[in-house]
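Suppose you are handed a protein chain with no further information: no name, no annotation, nothing but its sequence. What can you learn? This example shows the usual starting point.
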Amino acid sequence: MATKKKILIVDDDPQILREVQSYLENLGYEVATAEDGLSGLKLAQSILPDLLVLDITFPISTTSGNQFVDGVEVLQKLRESSNVPILMLSSTNVSSVKVMALNIGADDYVSKPFKIQELSARIEAILRRTEPELSQEKVLSFRRLRLDPGERHVWKDNRIIELTGIEFDILYMLARRPNHVFTRDNIIEKVWKNESCCVLKAVDVHIGHIRKKLEDNPSRPTFIATVRGTGYRFENEQT
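A reasonable first move is to predict its three-dimensional structure. Written in structure tokens, the prediction is:
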């Protein structure tokens, strides 16, 4: 029997916690909840969930006292040591807030109020990206890089590079067609597959994350080139 995926939901609204927990448990997930950032951070570090659903802001909680931690701080602290997929929730639909969340390490973003079916679909999409599976896609080998879509691993100079699921998908899509120019719309269509209300800027944010992890000098990238006014292309010699 397959092991249940473990999801942690951190939100200050008890009704949201109850409804989402019940819905996801009926789908077969193991679900834990927390009502404030500090409790959520401690629980995430303790139970090591497969995915975290995290509200971006919290009112100051009497249970946390002076140790108030909001969703942004939780995200930042977790990203210091973990690549756990994180889906942010927020009551605002402002693009700059979405980009801010992505900039500091979120994998996806859902605006409140949301339909629980939409949230579930986003969760399933993120978990699919992070699940190693038998893949019909081939291993790509380049002079300095190797990408294995089955294990969803990337090696640079024989050293493994830790990428999030969506970062891997973007890199693999670009690397499948070296020197081909992909627009941001192309990338959103192929990687997000219309499962996410993605803003164009999100592509730039994730490309920036990939460069920081992959490039010798992220300010002078050699693997992923920017095509000004158009998009991006992958550049590396295949072996």
